Amino acid sequence: MRPELRQKLEKQQYRMAGGHAAVKLCHWMRQSLLNKRHCYKQEFYGIASHRCLQMTPVAHDCTHNCVFCWRVRGFEGAEREWQQPREMMDALVEHQRQLITGFPGDPRCDLVKHREAKDPKHVAISLAGEPTMYPYLGELIAECHRRGMTTFLVTNGTLPEALESLDPLPTQLYVTVAAPNKYVYRDLCQPRIPDGWERLMRTLDLLPSLDTRTVIRHTLVKEYNLGWEEEYAKLDERADPTFVEPKGFVFVGDARQRMSIDNMPSHEEVAQFGERLASLLGRKLVKEKRDSRVVLLADEGTKLELDLG
């Protein structure tokens, strides 16, 4: 990783492992420890926000250059030496423990939750970059499961070959579909590969065959991709996911350099989109979290909560 990129990430409280992996405290972990508020993933699926490790095995590379991305972008695309999963997870868990060391000094901190937070039980493989570029992704997921952790993997879907060979699969697999068609995709996601849309379509076709819970995430950016419900519905029908999550773009991080606060849809706009899409798909809007501007669509009777043991 280029020294200037690493310096920028570390200034933003990322902690690095192996020169390519990173962990960073999630906003919702802080909220859970200090203010008794939690992430929508806890509301929807039963994941404890204070026991979640938000990480990425690829902090500095991606096949997209999304206009709405709030993460640091400094993509290199160069060959590198990759750290093995066990060593990487040891380092990232220890980094997270160090990052939460000072929380008990705040009188608002829930000390029981703080003790539990030192032992993460869920891994969100989603912090930055494109995690399917990590060549040992299956081994990473296996290592997390060996430690008794559930896993959510978030991908932009441009590397279907990585998903085809992935073993084991994550507890839940997210594919971000941030455009209803190739033209919006080109302008909003700004792919760094020439056939990104076609590769995403291959991923959507692959999803029904995968033996795990799957989610299509629609990141909605006002004046860019909000609307087109009929086109989104066709893509969702193609993928036949367990869940569909329409979620509003948030005007934070590096996205503020490229976007306006006016591009951030209200929760009402996200919910209205979700209701229209659910009607087209024959699904129900079963959950919503206003402060995250997200709604959950599922078939009636679908079990939402994970079996956490």
Overall pLDDT: 93
Determine the fraction of residues in helical runs and give it as a percent range: 25-40%
Q: Whole-Å distance between the termini?
A: 38 Å
User: What is the number of E strands?
Assistant: 10
Tell me about this structure.
The chain is α/β, with parallel strands linked by helices and 309 residues long. It has a single domain (3-298), classed as Aldolase class I (TIM Barrel, Alpha-Beta Barrel), CATH 3.20.20. The chain contains eleven helices and ten strands. It has a ten-stranded mixed sheet, with helices on both faces. The radius of gyration is 18 Å and the shape is globular.
List keywords for this structure.
ten-stranded mixed sheet; TIM Barrel; 17% strand; 309 residues; globular
Short description:
The chain is an alpha/beta fold. The protein contains 11 helices and 10 strands.
What topology does this entry show?
Layout: H1 3-11, E1 15-17, E2 21-23, H2 27-35, H3 40-45, E3 52-56, H4 85-99, H5 111-117, E4 122-125, H6 137-146, E5 150-155, H7 160-164, E6 172-176, H8 182-189, H9 196-206, E7 213-220, H10 229-239, E8 243-248, H11 267-281, E9 284-289, E10 294-298
Parallel strand pairs: 3-4, 4-5, 5-6, 6-7, 7-8
Antiparallel strand pairs: 1-2, 2-3, 8-10, 9-10
Helix pairs in contact: 9-10, 10-11
